[in-house]
Amino acid sequence: MYAIVEIAGHQFKVEKDQKVFVNRLQTEEGKKVAFDNVLLVADGDKVTVGAPAIDGAQVGAKVVKHLKGDKVIVFKKKRRKGYRVKNGHRQALTEIVIESIAASGAKKAAPAKKAAPKKEAPKAEAPKAQAKPAAPKKAATKGKADDLKKIEGIGPKIASTLTEAGIATFADLAASTPEKISEVIANVRGNHVTDTWPAQAKLASEGKWDELKKWQDELDGGKA
Protein backbone atom coordinates (compact mmCIF):
# COMPACT_ATOMS: atom_id res chain seq x y z
CA MET A 1 0.00 0.00 0.00
CA TYR A 2 1.33 3.40 -0.94
CA ALA A 3 0.09 6.99 -1.17
CA ILE A 4 1.00 10.20 -2.92
CA VAL A 5 0.86 13.06 -0.42
CA GLU A 6 1.81 16.73 -0.47
CA ILE A 7 4.22 17.71 2.31
CA ALA A 8 5.65 21.23 2.70
CA GLY A 9 4.89 22.15 -0.89
CA HIS A 10 6.25 18.97 -2.52
CA GLN A 11 4.58 15.69 -3.52
CA PHE A 12 5.99 12.36 -2.32
CA LYS A 13 5.19 8.70 -2.98
CA VAL A 14 5.32 7.10 0.48
CA GLU A 15 4.87 3.69 2.07
CA LYS A 16 4.69 2.58 5.68
CA ASP A 17 8.04 2.63 7.57
CA GLN A 18 9.65 4.66 4.75
CA LYS A 19 12.04 7.48 5.65
CA VAL A 20 11.45 10.74 3.77
CA PHE A 21 13.43 14.00 3.74
CA VAL A 22 11.14 17.03 3.37
CA ASN A 23 11.52 20.80 3.67
CA ARG A 24 11.94 21.95 7.27
CA LEU A 25 8.81 21.41 9.41
CA GLN A 26 8.00 23.40 12.55
CA THR A 27 7.21 20.22 14.54
CA GLU A 28 9.70 19.28 17.26
CA GLU A 29 11.84 16.14 17.00
CA GLY A 30 10.10 13.03 18.32
CA LYS A 31 6.62 14.48 17.80
CA LYS A 32 4.02 12.98 15.49
CA VAL A 33 2.51 14.84 12.56
CA ALA A 34 -0.35 14.10 10.14
CA PHE A 35 -0.77 15.14 6.50
CA ASP A 36 -4.29 15.18 5.06
CA ASN A 37 -3.54 16.52 1.57
CA VAL A 38 -3.46 12.98 0.12
CA LEU A 39 -3.77 12.93 -3.69
CA LEU A 40 -3.76 9.15 -4.32
CA VAL A 41 -3.97 5.93 -2.32
CA ALA A 42 -3.22 2.50 -3.85
CA ASP A 43 -3.98 -0.73 -1.97
CA GLY A 44 -3.24 -3.63 -4.29
CA ASP A 45 -5.50 -3.31 -7.35
CA LYS A 46 -7.69 -0.73 -5.63
CA VAL A 47 -6.61 2.81 -6.51
CA THR A 48 -8.35 5.91 -5.15
CA VAL A 49 -7.65 9.28 -6.77
CA GLY A 50 -8.64 12.58 -5.16
CA ALA A 51 -10.11 15.67 -6.80
CA PRO A 52 -7.61 17.01 -5.96
CA ALA A 53 -7.35 15.48 -2.43
CA ILE A 54 -9.08 12.41 -1.01
CA ASP A 55 -11.62 13.33 1.64
CA GLY A 56 -10.87 11.47 4.88
CA ALA A 57 -7.45 10.14 3.80
CA GLN A 58 -4.45 10.83 6.00
CA VAL A 59 -0.75 9.97 6.26
CA GLY A 60 0.72 9.80 9.76
CA ALA A 61 4.42 10.28 10.39
CA LYS A 62 6.97 10.88 13.15
CA VAL A 63 9.64 13.59 13.06
CA VAL A 64 13.03 11.91 13.45
CA LYS A 65 15.38 14.90 13.29
CA HIS A 66 16.06 18.26 11.69
CA LEU A 67 19.14 18.61 9.50
CA LYS A 68 20.67 20.39 6.53
CA GLY A 69 21.06 18.89 3.07
CA ASP A 70 24.24 18.49 1.06
CA LYS A 71 25.92 21.66 -0.10
CA VAL A 72 24.93 22.83 -3.57
CA ILE A 73 27.43 25.03 -5.42
CA VAL A 74 25.92 27.89 -7.43
CA PHE A 75 28.33 29.51 -9.91
CA LYS A 76 27.41 32.72 -11.76
CA LYS A 77 29.37 34.24 -14.63
CA LYS A 78 28.72 37.16 -16.95
CA ARG A 79 30.55 37.22 -20.25
CA ARG A 80 32.89 40.10 -20.96
CA LYS A 81 32.07 41.61 -17.55
CA GLY A 82 34.81 40.02 -15.46
CA TYR A 83 32.02 38.87 -13.14
CA ARG A 84 32.26 35.52 -11.35
CA VAL A 85 30.44 34.54 -8.16
CA LYS A 86 30.55 31.20 -6.39
CA ASN A 87 28.12 30.47 -3.55
CA GLY A 88 27.13 27.43 -1.54
CA HIS A 89 23.66 26.58 -0.23
CA ARG A 90 22.42 23.91 2.19
CA GLN A 91 18.66 23.39 2.31
CA ALA A 92 17.00 23.08 5.74
CA LEU A 93 15.39 19.62 5.86
CA THR A 94 13.42 17.39 8.23
CA GLU A 95 13.70 13.60 8.31
CA ILE A 96 10.37 11.84 8.95
CA VAL A 97 9.32 8.20 9.02
CA ILE A 98 5.88 7.18 7.71
CA GLU A 99 3.89 5.35 10.39
CA SER A 100 0.43 4.94 8.86
CA ILE A 101 -1.63 5.47 5.70
CA ALA A 102 -5.40 5.80 6.14
CA ALA A 103 -7.47 5.71 2.96
CA SER A 104 -10.58 6.94 4.77
CA GLY A 105 -12.00 7.68 8.18
CA ALA A 106 -9.54 10.37 9.23
CA LYS A 107 -11.28 13.47 10.47
CA LYS A 108 -9.89 16.94 10.12
CA ALA A 109 -9.89 19.14 13.16
CA ALA A 110 -13.09 21.14 13.23
CA PRO A 111 -12.54 24.89 13.16
CA ALA A 112 -13.28 26.65 16.40
CA LYS A 113 -16.73 28.19 16.48
CA LYS A 114 -16.83 31.90 16.84
CA ALA A 115 -18.83 33.15 19.77
CA ALA A 116 -21.94 35.05 18.78
CA PRO A 117 -21.57 38.76 19.44
CA LYS A 118 -23.47 39.93 22.49
CA LYS A 119 -26.31 42.29 21.85
CA GLU A 120 -25.80 45.59 23.52
CA ALA A 121 -28.58 46.92 25.67
CA PRO A 122 -30.29 49.97 24.16
CA LYS A 123 -28.73 53.14 25.47
CA ALA A 124 -30.92 55.60 27.27
CA GLU A 125 -31.29 58.88 25.42
CA ALA A 126 -29.49 61.75 27.08
CA PRO A 127 -31.54 64.79 28.03
CA LYS A 128 -31.66 67.37 25.26
CA ALA A 129 -30.35 70.10 27.53
CA GLN A 130 -27.28 68.03 28.46
CA ALA A 131 -24.15 68.55 26.37
CA LYS A 132 -23.03 65.60 24.27
CA PRO A 133 -19.84 63.88 25.48
CA ALA A 134 -16.82 64.31 23.24
CA ALA A 135 -16.33 61.48 20.76
CA PRO A 136 -13.37 59.25 21.64
CA LYS A 137 -10.33 59.66 19.44
CA LYS A 138 -9.64 56.88 16.97
CA ALA A 139 -6.58 54.76 17.61
CA ALA A 140 -3.69 55.48 15.32
CA THR A 141 -3.63 53.11 12.38
CA LYS A 142 -0.64 50.83 11.98
CA GLY A 143 1.85 51.77 9.25
CA LYS A 144 1.48 50.09 5.90
CA ALA A 145 3.74 47.25 4.88
CA ASP A 146 6.77 48.16 2.76
CA ASP A 147 7.42 46.81 -0.72
CA LEU A 148 9.92 44.10 0.21
CA LYS A 149 10.45 43.30 -3.50
CA LYS A 150 12.78 46.32 -3.61
CA ILE A 151 15.33 44.12 -1.83
CA GLU A 152 17.57 42.35 -4.35
CA GLY A 153 16.72 38.61 -4.31
CA ILE A 154 13.13 38.94 -3.02
CA GLY A 155 10.27 38.15 -5.40
CA PRO A 156 6.47 38.33 -5.00
CA LYS A 157 6.14 34.84 -3.42
CA ILE A 158 8.89 35.44 -0.85
CA ALA A 159 7.53 38.92 -0.07
CA SER A 160 4.05 37.54 0.68
CA THR A 161 5.51 34.69 2.76
CA LEU A 162 7.55 37.12 4.87
CA THR A 163 4.54 39.42 5.34
CA GLU A 164 2.38 36.49 6.56
CA ALA A 165 5.15 35.66 9.06
CA GLY A 166 5.09 39.20 10.49
CA ILE A 167 8.08 40.56 8.57
CA ALA A 168 6.22 43.27 6.65
CA THR A 169 8.49 46.33 6.72
CA PHE A 170 12.10 47.12 5.93
CA ALA A 171 12.69 47.65 9.66
CA ASP A 172 11.29 44.18 10.46
CA LEU A 173 13.55 42.60 7.84
CA ALA A 174 16.59 44.54 9.06
CA ALA A 175 15.99 43.34 12.62
CA SER A 176 15.83 39.69 11.52
CA THR A 177 18.73 37.32 10.76
CA PRO A 178 19.55 35.38 7.58
CA GLU A 179 18.98 32.10 9.45
CA LYS A 180 15.53 33.16 10.67
CA ILE A 181 14.56 34.37 7.19
CA SER A 182 15.70 31.07 5.64
CA GLU A 183 13.44 29.15 8.04
CA VAL A 184 10.45 31.36 7.18
CA ILE A 185 10.85 30.86 3.40
CA ALA A 186 11.90 27.21 3.58
CA ASN A 187 8.75 26.13 1.70
CA VAL A 188 9.33 28.54 -1.21
CA ARG A 189 10.90 26.70 -4.12
CA GLY A 190 14.36 27.71 -5.32
CA ASN A 191 17.77 28.43 -3.85
CA HIS A 192 17.66 31.65 -1.84
CA VAL A 193 20.72 33.22 -0.22
CA THR A 194 19.52 35.62 2.47
CA ASP A 195 22.90 36.85 3.72
CA THR A 196 22.53 40.43 2.44
CA TRP A 197 18.78 40.94 2.95
CA PRO A 198 18.89 42.44 6.49
CA ALA A 199 21.69 44.85 5.46
CA GLN A 200 19.79 45.90 2.32
CA ALA A 201 16.63 46.42 4.39
CA LYS A 202 18.53 48.57 6.88
CA LEU A 203 19.60 50.94 4.09
CA ALA A 204 16.03 51.01 2.76
CA SER A 205 14.56 51.74 6.21
CA GLU A 206 17.00 54.66 6.59
CA GLY A 207 16.09 56.04 3.16
CA LYS A 208 19.58 55.54 1.72
CA TRP A 209 18.26 54.56 -1.72
CA ASP A 210 21.26 55.79 -3.73
CA GLU A 211 23.64 53.77 -1.59
CA LEU A 212 21.33 50.74 -1.79
CA LYS A 213 21.00 51.02 -5.60
CA LYS A 214 24.78 51.21 -6.00
CA TRP A 215 25.21 48.09 -3.88
CA GLN A 216 22.42 46.18 -5.64
CA ASP A 217 24.14 46.76 -9.00
CA GLU A 218 26.96 44.59 -7.65
CA LEU A 219 24.61 41.83 -6.37
CA ASP A 220 23.05 38.92 -8.23
CA GLY A 221 19.86 37.54 -6.71
CA GLY A 222 20.78 38.96 -3.29
CA LYS A 223 24.23 37.34 -3.33
CA ALA A 224 27.40 39.39 -3.06
Number of strands: 10
Number of helices: 5
- Gap from first CA to last CA: 48 Å
Helical proportion?
Answer: 10-25%
Helix/strand structural class: alpha+beta
- Strand proportion: 25-35%
Question: Which geometry do the CA atoms define?
Answer: flat
Give the biggest beta sheet.
4 strands, antiparallel
Overview in brief:
17% of the residues lie in helices and 30% in strands.
What does this structure look like?
The protein has 224 residues and is α+β, with helices and mostly antiparallel strands. It has five helices and ten strands. Strand 8 (72-78) and strand 9 form a beta hairpin. The chain has a four-stranded antiparallel β-sheet with strand order 2-1-5-6, with no helix packed on it. A four-stranded antiparallel β-sheet has the order 3-10-7-4, with no helix packed on it. The two termini are 48 Å apart. It has helices spanning 156-164, 170-175, 178-184, 197-205, 209-216, and strands at residues 2-7, 10-15, 19-23, 32-35, 38-43, 46-49, 58-68, 72-78, 83-89, 92-102. Residues 136-142 have low confidence and may be disordered.
